[in-house]
Design goal:
heterodimer; A: 260 residues; mainly alpha; 12 helices; 77% helix; globular; B: alpha+beta; 9 helices; 25% helix; binds adenosine-5'-triphosphate; binds magnesium ion
């Protein structure tokens, strides 16, 4: 890279790292010296644990629902309905166009109907459908890429000709070969749910992001510590994506072949 | 009774007819090739047999049992695809084992069978390798072992060698034939490579535009093509447009040639005389020649044991395969006369629309 190239990389890094370093420094500040006091305060706060584990549970449920819903869908679109791919891609843009605030108002409206059993009304799990919608673009693009990397038709037909039905084909042949994409989608969804504020806040649930917001407005040093923690979670999710992307033996690459 | 029967198969995609009609019976243990140019419907026919496509009409019958509406996973047909069909997440061994697992075979039984099959295709050493660690040829061997593992009723292969290089292709096709003979498995083999089809098959069905043009033993297809399309498609052929003259004679450019095959045809009928390049002989023609087929040598094509000599004979371009030393006597630019023995030419009636590949002219016999 040229000298000016490095210069701009350095500027970019400073832009990202400086606020982070400052926040980190602040989170360790304890009067005139440094300590873990702010972190201890966060970890000792029962609210932290409650909201964190609630968000964690919501993230896991969202991921499971999204995978169950989208893996068969994307598989089918690739196998039988390729003409609908543009439509699905268009649907992917919707969560970006329709803001979460509109989404949650809509969902609250839907849940106001009589047919929703009362016990679900108070349950934070009713955020899950909204999260699934918000996560749809990430999940779709991750899965779509994975499906494009394999020869869906040939693998499916090979499996069928050997006697396997749909369940076995999906489970033993297709899933292992798109696992990387599914995991990448899962990590992205995880990061999304762990950071989603608008919907939870409007629906009056105390999730991890609303807790961050609350701390941020009330306590200075612990807020910095919490920012670093939440940043760490996001980075772990991203590292997870990098890691699963590099696992050997799972790639759909085959040597040979060519003219088709 | 025939083992596998394709009864009046017809297939349309929307308003496009991929298969006009295919009607063929295959004996148990027979190796039948479907040969034809790109888009003639070979793959479609094979996919109908495998169950991946439903015919618009017609039936697929195996051992007297109608399988037309049976889903592919209940057909017991082993299929080898062109490429990229091995499960990338499984080793060679696990790939071969897959179909046996589906059938619920016990572990010990499975291991034995997988071992046997990998040995059969010569890949015992590569059992633990993943597809991306195998060469294209090895991948196709594994695919073959995998298809054979389930002891299929019929083995289906769709251009399994077309993605491989020439040497491996020849080697592997001989091996496929050897295994097929050894196991006595009924085989349907799709290819667009005529040499491949002729060299391994018991019978070859030549397809054009969704129809069988001719079906027969390789030698029959090669030596006695039944239609102009087959003649053109299989090997190289010299074509002479002619008119039937006296008994056993035809007229080309006003000159009379003796062709045994023209016997019994009505005088004045327009016909096509077909002569293989290896049958055609060339002599130096000095001055005015008496043969109908005189011309100038325009090119020499070196083919190893023989040299193909191209002759520009006015309306016709002729090819003759000569031993190297004979070709050397007829350098480019020399005047030559071509001739062939009376029983060396084949005569086909020429229908109104000449050269249309779909024309189904009756064989002139
Ligand atoms: N699913 C489909 N929908 C529409 N048309 C199809 C479909 N499958 C095949 N066709 C058409 O049917 C015709 C025959 O196709 P097929 O794949 O059988 O040809 P082929 O003989 O195998 O050719 P190739 O040598 O190129 O593989 C082609 O013109 C193709 O475009
Ligand atoms: Mg084909």
């Amino acid at each position: 890279m040229t000298r000016s190239g490095w210069f701009w990389v350095a500027v970019g890094l400073l832009y990202f790292l400086l606020p982070l370093a400052a926040t980190a420094e602040f989170s360790f500040k304890d009067g005139d010296s440094y300590s873990f006091a702010a972190y201890r305060e966060i970890f000792d706060d029962p609210q932290f644990r409650d909201t964190f584990f609630l968000s964690l549970k919501l993230a896991i449920v969202t991921i499971i629902v999204a995978l169950l819903l989208f893996i068969p869908t994307v598989y089918w679109v690739h196998l039988r309905l390729p003409q609908f791919r543009p439509l699905v891609q268009f649907l992917c843009a919707l969560p970006f166009v329709v803001p979460p605030i509109v989404l949650i108002v809509g969902i609250l409206y839907v849940y106001n109907y009589q047919w929703v059993p009362g016990k679900y009304l108070g349950s934070p799990y009713y955020l899950v459908p909204g999260y699934v919608v918000l996560g749809f673009p990430f999940m779709f693009f991750a899965l779509d890429n994975a499906f494009r990397a394999i020869d869906v038709h040939t693998l499916t037909e090979a499996s069928q000709s050997l006697g396997a039905g749909w369940t076995r084909t999906l489970w033993k042949v297709i899933l292992p070969n798109i696992l990387t994409g599914a995991l990448a989608g899962a990590f992205l969804t995880f990061a999304l749910v762990m950071g989603e504020f608008t919907m939870a806040s409007l629906a009056l649930f105390n999730t991890f992001p609303t807790y961050i917001n609350y701390i941020g407005q009330t306590k200075a040093n612990p807020a910095a510590a919490l920012t670093i923690i939440s940043f760490g979670i996001t980075w772990l999710a991203l590292l997870g994506i990098l890691f699963v992307g590099r696992r050997p033996g799972r790639t759909a690459v085959q040597v040979g072949g060519g003219a088709r | 009774m025939a083992y596998l029967e394709l009864e009046k198969l017809h297939k349309e995609f929307g308003d496009f007819t991929a298969i006009e009609e295919i009607d063929v019976s295959i004996q148990a243990g027979e190796f039948l090739s479907l040969l034809g140019p790109s888009g003639c419907g070979k793959t479609t026919a094979l996919r109908i047999v495998a169950g991946f496509e439903r015919p618009t009409s017609g039936r697929v019958v195996v051992e007297g049992k109608d399988l037309t509406n049976v889903p592919p996973n209940h057909r017991d047909m082993g299929m080898v695809f062109q490429a990229y069909s091995l499960f990338p997440n499984m080793t060679a061994e696990a790939n071969v084992e897959f179909g046996l697992r589906v059938r619920g075979q016990s572990g010990a039984e499975r291991r034995k069978r997988v071992e046997d099959l990998l040995e059969l295709v010569g890949l015992s050493a590569a059992a633990k390798r993943y597809p991306h660690q195998l060469s294209g040829g090895m991948q196709q061997r594994v695919a073959l072992a995998r298809a054979l593992a389930i002891e299929p009723r019929v083995l289906l292969l769709d251009e399994p060698l077309s993605a491989l290089d020439a040497k491996v292709r020849v080697q592997l096709r001989e091996e496929i034939r050897r295994l097929q003979t050894q196991l006595g498995i009924t085989t349907l083999y799709v290819t667009h490579d005529q040499e491949e089809a002729l060299s391994v098959s018991d019978r070859v069905a030549v397809l054009s535009q969704g129809q069988i043009e001719q079906i027969g033993a390789p030698a029959e297809i090669y030596n006695a093509p039944g239609t102009p399309f087959v003649a053109e498609f299989i090997g190289t052929m010299n074509r002479l447009e002619a008119t039937v003259a006296e008994e056993g004679q035809v007229q080309v450019n006003g000159m009379v040639l003796a062709v045994t095959d023209a016997r019994g045809l009505p005088r004045g009928e327009r016909v096509l005389v077909l002569i293989r390049p290896e049958i055609l002989d060339l002599q130096r023609a000095d001055g005015a020649a008496s043969s109908a087929l005189v011309g100038e040598v325009v090119a020499h094509i070196f083919l190893g044991a023989i040299t193909r000599v191209k002759v520009d004979a006015g309306e016709h371009e002729l090819s003759a395969d000569l031993p190297g030393h004979r070709a050397a006597e007829l350098p480019v630019g020399s005047q030559v006369a071509a001739s062939f023995p009376a029983d060396g030419g084949r005569v086909l009636a020429l229908s109104e629309q000449p050269e249309g590949p779909a024309e189904r002219a009756p064989a002139g016999q």
